[in-house]
């Protein structure tokens, strides 16, 4: 009897000690804010190229993305140093562990912002991100195949690790990379799209035949846009063209955003805000990017107008997320928002 009691007391003491450490509650999913800001900066850059939008908008958003990355990387390093057990537990979690991909994807996307001002830094960051994303995807797939998974764990977060490989090619055109690395464009495209199909099916099956996700997690359903909206841009970069397949991916993304908009129309009234909602910012921004890419080839006023509507929607969402998060930080509520 004394051994279990002693073990329970030890576990409780360990948990209490961890709770006293600085930033032990900081979720890695907050790096989704870096992804969203970088994606929004890229969308506004395309708007500048397409319609002459002011350049300072995408430059300012890009600077915010870099600042957010530096701040979050420093904060999470503090968590790693003072609460390594909390980081280990987060990484081992069957759902939250997938969101470590948001940090790696940030390394792949920030070169889009940094390349014009610091090319070598952008190249180094992209190289680290590419290796890390490949290893992380391999690790997660190996974890999935190593044991029986629980159906309720099949949430949109599962898309991040492997479909995140779609982000590998996006910055390659601006990085002045040697020709030997060009096959990585196709690698990111085919692996990302290949795994998107079964993962999307598994998640849809979970949504149809399992209890509904908790209300605070409902906004993360917008992650389901990513395979189509990001896939369209990755296809354009890898194949150097926008054809019927790319258009089909864009139309699928539009269909999904219409479905999800209906499901999430009451979310702000019924669900408490969580910083994990930042995970929706990049899919929305990437849809705006896809809209402007399509406008380049369609040359139709309605397609242009739709791209601007998508950009406005992504901008409003990111602005609201930023204001709500900063409001929570200033009021000392960040712990309760995780």
What does this structure look like?
- The protein has 338 residues and is mainly α.
- The chain has a single domain (26-337), classed as Voltage-dependent anion channel (Glycosyltransferase).
- It has 14 helices and no strands.
- The protein has helices at residues 2-19, 32-51, 55-82, 84-92, 101-109, 111-114, 119-146, 159-163, 183-209, 226-239, 244-263, 267-270, 281-298, 301-330.
- Helix 9 packs antiparallel against helix 10 (226-239), helix 10 (226-239) runs antiparallel to helix 11 (244-263) and helix 13 (281-298) runs antiparallel to helix 14.
- The radius of gyration is 20 Å and the shape is globular.
- The model is unreliable at 1-16 (pLDDT under 50).
Q: Topology as H/E string?
A: HHHHHHHHHHHHHH
The number of strands is 0
Ends apart, CA distance between termini: 37 Å
Number of separate structural domains: 1
Q: What is the name of the CATH architecture?
A: Alpha/alpha barrel
Q: Work out the radius of gyration.
A: 20 Å
Number of helices: 14
The class by helix and strand makeup works out as: mainly alpha
pLDDT below 50 for ≥5 consecutive residues: which ranges?
A: 1-16
CATH fourth-tier homologous superfamily:
Voltage-dependent anion channel
| Highest CATH level, the class | Mainly Alpha
Strand content: under 5%
Approximately how much helix is present in the residues? 55-70%
